[in-house]
Here is the input.
Amino acid sequence: MKHALGAAVAALASLGASMALAAVTSTVVDVPAGSSSVRILDVRPDAPVASIISFAGGSGFMGIRDDGTLSTAEGRCSPVGRNRQAFAEHGYAVALVNDAAAGNVPNLLAVIAYLKAKAEVPIWLIGGSSATPIVADLAVNLPATLPLGAMFWSPDVLSAALAARVQRASFVLWHSSDPTQSGAQLYNQLTAAPVKGRHVLTGGTNAICGAAGFHVFNGLDAEVVAAVAGFVDANNGALGTTQTQTAVEYYYADWNYYFVTSFPDEIAVLDGGAFGGVWKRTGQTFDVWSLPATDHLPACRFFSTAFAPKSSHFYTPFAAECAGLKVNPAWQYENIAFYLQLPDAAGTCPAGTAVLYRLYNNGMGGAPNHRFTTSAATFSQMQSLGWTFEGDGRTGAFACVPAPAAGAKGLWQATTAGGRTVTIAVLDDATYYAAYFSPGGTTLDGGLYGVSASADGRFASLRGRNVPFRNGFAGGSPTISGTYAARTSLDLVIGSGATAETVAAKYDSSYDAPSNLAALAGTYKGFSGHAQDWFTATSTIDANGNLTSRGGCDHRARLTSRGTAGVFDLSLVNGCSLPGAPAQGGILLFDAAKGTIAAMSPLNDDDIVFIGGTRQ
Here is the structure.
């Protein structure tokens, strides 16, 4: 729930920080987080360069009212709380967390997801006094891939063991006349911080906030803002530096050609239908390094010039191969595409990396083409089609790339205590779909859809919907929380209270198998429609992925590969559930063993279009 504050709100009581001046706006937001929510006051300039998440000291309670004022001394005395307008005018979005007790990883992932949806900028956690261990714990346990720094003001004593695990850019601020702080001690304990800074304030007055003015830097507002901003400005760029980027694979069916690129502009152009839309995503991606390092070699990119119109691209990190092709008139050198690591002497990739395979089409079709993949299943499949691998003879490895953060990504299968079958797909972009079927059967009853956060073995839904198609599940609650072991198990509680359902899902290895649209071809009998409005239907899918569903509610959709056998992208072209609406996306889950399909396409904010059936 949001409460937008107008620019006409004059000033906060007591310490008088302005609510909205110039381009700065303030909004009270109750961010959904699992079965509850986290209240924040979001103070935001038009184009922030960083986001600051601030926790109060003392009781930890800011007392954020619906009108955006702060009802507690901890909120009004907080150095960040009372200076939020100044920080925003400097270019930082400021999120004041109402209750520091909400400062755990799942809740903060939800808050961070909200902030990043507003602006994709680095995050800085700041807390002082009693919030010191909260900030330290979050700095240690939030995903290491998050661009995030930590700042501590007037810190309490922190255990040396916890402080030594903080591997974030860290800043400590304290007052020389405050006998209750442990700033110098904490600064010395931050032994693993890649960069750290400290600033000691003097002056001001102690006669405010319960004679704790030095503790909260009373009378030193400009100095506090300057000290914090100085450290953030100096280190913000390093936090936001992208060390890896994603390479996306495309396929041109008429030529049987593959192409991969990690350049965002090329990806945008191809996804936008350039070249007549002939290049389609295969669903396969892999990460590459975007910057050089001691063990990262530049991958030269070449374009074939002697085989027009069937020209293609080629990549190599080998200096000799790069130099040879640069003088070969059949190939045109373009640039350094990305950076790769080479396998060791045994042909294996080091920990933290994944094998990248390179395959050659042997000139089939009259011109050379190469395919690059991290999928062992695809590697084997292409060899069976006559392609030759170019890599280590023992392992097949051509190069090494960053290992993907697995999280809870994948396809999962479960049977509940009540006999329901549940299929869950957690996709690369953290969206999830869950189809639930009738007890003991294969009839689609409904589904869940939303955005998830998964890190360090914990899974939570940030926002979602639970839409009954024929019969409800978990009391209609979209709340999901639980734990996971990557590619092994996903143990969830869906809903709450007496209607909650426990789901113990196992990883479905078909997610790793190569995609085959033709395997979907057939006729399926079941149902189609949307929330509580369903009809018997017969659906047909042809070998090209065209889906037609006919019954009381007709639909037509186009299916495309995501690179896996169990999950396909769906574009719902038209149907009675969306008359006159443009095509909309979704997925189709396919269980080859049971012969079932479950197509789901989110509709509006609270509905899902379903197409389900069993192969005849």
Notes: Residues 527 and 536 are 4 Å apart (CA to CA).
